[in-house]
Amino acid sequence: MNDFSRAITYLNDPFNWSRPNGIADLALEHIGISAVAVLAAMVVALPIGVALGTARRGAGLVVVLSNVSRAVPTLALLTLFAVSPIGFGNRATTIALAVFAIPPILTNTFVGFRGVDAEVREAARGMGMSRAQVLGRVELPLALPLVTTGIRTAAVQVVATAGLAALVGGGGLGRLINLGFGQQDYGVMIAGAILVAGLALLTELVLATLSWAVTPGPRRLPFLQVRTTPKAAAVPEPTASGVPL
């Protein structure tokens, strides 16, 4: 039996799912760490992106913040946190992942709000809308597709990276990968990798569906689109003289 077959056997064993600290518990912990990290990144990135995007300035600042955040590896942050008062565990992982999730949310929010046509804003103000109403009723619906794309990208990246928590004493599905590597049991390690990849794909699917659902305007799933054929032109009936009416 090769390593991949052992991984499938491990995943098909119900005991590995239901036991304490089994796959189900580790998956829930993995989702919890990822969700908190993405929410923390949204709290930081969304207000900054909205403020700079509506003001149509600060593009250089957004680029610098995004590049700096991307340039710092998550593993390097975890190493720094390990020798700081933050220490090991899920808290250090959550902070590092939140820093990792800020760039796509910040960039997409900024681009989405900056891309709103200035004439649309002026028309809304001309109708008597306040600044808050323009932001909530005009700018937000137009920028929402890009904003949700940034959140979805950040969430998928965080879920795929949260396995690093096991390296600093944290939980999540990365513990299976760490355990398999430490025991030279590559079947368990492959099983953990499959679970992390599957959870990332599931996150993409759920958030893509949610983004489609909250996006304003007419929408239809691609596989539900119905093609309509143009109606044939009516042929006038001839009269007794043979001349059409």
Automatic annotation (TrEMBL):
It comes from the Bacteria. Residues 31-207 form the ABC transmembrane type-1 domain. Pfam families: BPD_transp_1. GO terms for biological process: glycine betaine transport; transmembrane transport. One of its GO terms (cellular component) is plasma membrane. It is a multi-pass membrane protein. Its main location: membrane. It is found in: Cell membrane; Membrane. The chain crosses the membrane at residues 31-52, 59-83, 95-113, 134-152, 158-177, 189-214. InterPro entries: ABC_transp_perm/SBD, MetI-like, MetI-like_sf. Keywords: Membrane, Transmembrane, Transmembrane helix, Transport. Signal peptide: none annotated. Belongs to the binding-protein-dependent transport system permease family. This is Osmoprotectant transport system permease protein. It comes from Geodermatophilus amargosae.
